[in-house]
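Tokens for chain A. Residues wanted.
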């Protein structure tokens, strides 16, 4: 076959493959999908605040102070999904974004927020069809009631106990982030009554790390969260306790640790925290894939870097959730990591960055592998904007997730991979059933 004929044939194969992808979701299946009350595995909902008050706890490492990054097509204000969100949530009656109409919209939102009071965040979730939302926050707060919200605290600070000025100097973003982590560790130590850094690693583990994890569990945490990819690479190598203890003892009294030495301590502490989380029945959520900020290392957020950690036989009792499923660069790698018996992935962030059609392709691939290990997630967060805030982000991400799921399952039905009853079953698994099993809950009648 000549090169020209081969290229023509290859192009035909690609076209044929594209044609087998469902272009739209089966209407009856979509109707079923919209009825399912979802469990949101990952989000950053804001607490209610008084006039002039600021919520500084919706993320341990907030992105808004960073150097702005360019928005992609799906996250720009002119995304038609936001117009649809206004209509569905607030009864917006227009097809434009004129200044006068948007001002009326903002007034309507303010009115509803005031009328609902502390019940407002739960009211929004009810409108989105979300039964329970995992709130990734430093602490919960006003309006985030136990009926709708479950707490997922941040624990990166526990693996960076030394002077962080060296690692914080690597990029402007990390300088800001490590300042936040240092303050958070001081907060945790304060909660434990530990005013000064313990002088030995064993003492740090028994007086700070384990008690803080136990305290979080007692306070209602359903999992713990690591944003480590914003701070360093995800390659947490195996390190023995004596080696880590020597590094800790060398710098506990002061001084800036050499990067390679400090990494060994971090690597050890990450596995120690993961083991303790497993003992307490707390799944470990890990940010993977794309992250905000112009200095973010996408290569360092490759979930394959976690493979030695996920293969550690001592951590088989710990369940790991690859948040964002390696979005957007590493979604295929994520599918293979799901072969590990204690590894799961969610759709969060992809639901914000990707179109329903594009996300359906990722979902189709994952569902061909392990439909029992895929979790729904929005990654909704407060923007600080009056017209497109966490409510609209939640609507858009929820709409994207459900439509993508419908398109993927429709394609699987059309290709004879699954029956219609199985498609309905998988939809329920992804939107809520898998989370119920993972976190050991019982299904409500």
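Reply:
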């Amino acid at each position: 076959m000549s090169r020209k004929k081969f290229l023509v044939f290859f192009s035909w194969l690609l076209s044929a493959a594209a044609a087998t992808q469902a272009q739209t979701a089966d209407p009856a299946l979509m109707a079923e999908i919209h009825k399912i009350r979802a469990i949101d595995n990952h989000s950053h909902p804001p607490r209610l605040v008084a006039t002039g008050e600021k919520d500084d706890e919706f993320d341990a490492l907030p992105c808004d102070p960073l150097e702005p990054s360019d928005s992609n097509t799906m996250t720009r204000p002119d995304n038609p999904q936001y117009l649809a969100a206004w209509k569905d949530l607030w009864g917006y009656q227009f097809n434009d974004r004129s200044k006068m109409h948007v001002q009326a919209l903002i007034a309507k939102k303010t009115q509803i927020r005031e009328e609902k009071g502390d019940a407002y965040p739960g009211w929004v979730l009810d409108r989105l069809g979300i039964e329970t939302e995992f709130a990734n926050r430093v602490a919960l707060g006003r309006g985030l009631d136990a009926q709708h919200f479950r707490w997922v605290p941040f624990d990166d600070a526990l693996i960076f106990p030394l002077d962080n000025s060296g690692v914080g100097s690597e990029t402007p973003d990390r300088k800001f982030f490590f300042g936040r982590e240092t303050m958070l560790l001081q907060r945790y130590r304060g909660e434990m009554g530990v005013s000064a850094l313990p002088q030995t690693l064993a003492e740090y583990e028994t007086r700070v790390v384990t008690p803080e994890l136990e305290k979080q569990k007692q306070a209602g945490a359903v999992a713990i969260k690591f944003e480590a990819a914003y701070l360093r690479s995800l390659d947490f190598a195996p390190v023995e306790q004596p080696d880590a203890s020597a590094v800790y003892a060398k710098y506990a009294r002061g001084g800036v640790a050499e990067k390679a030495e400090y990494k060994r301590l971090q690597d050890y502490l990450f596995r120690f925290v993961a083991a303790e989380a497993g003992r307490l029945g707390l799944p470990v959520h890990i940010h993977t894939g794309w992250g905000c900020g112009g200095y973010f290392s996408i290569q360092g957020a490759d979930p394959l870097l976690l493979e030695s950690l996920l293969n550690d036989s001592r951590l088989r009792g710990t369940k790991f959730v690859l948040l964002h499923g390696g979005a957007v660069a590493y979604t295929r790698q994520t599918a293979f990591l799901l072969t590990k018996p204690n590894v799961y992935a969610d759709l969060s962030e992809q639901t914000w960055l990707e179109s329903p059609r594009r996300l359906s392709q990722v979902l189709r691939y994952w569902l061909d592998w392990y439909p029992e290990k895929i979790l729904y997630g929005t990654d909704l967060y407060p923007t600080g904007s009056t017209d497109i805030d966490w409510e609209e982000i939640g609507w858009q991400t929820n709409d994207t997730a459900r439509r993508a799921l419908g398109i993927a399952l429709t394609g699987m039905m059309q290709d004879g991979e699954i029956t219609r009853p199985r498609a309905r079953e998988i939809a329920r698994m992804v939107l809520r059933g898998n989370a119920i099993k993972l976190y050991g809950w019982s299904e409500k009648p």
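The chain is about 50% helix and 10% strand. Strands lie at 38-43, 130-136, 149-152, 224-226, 284-287, 320-323, 343-346, 374-375.
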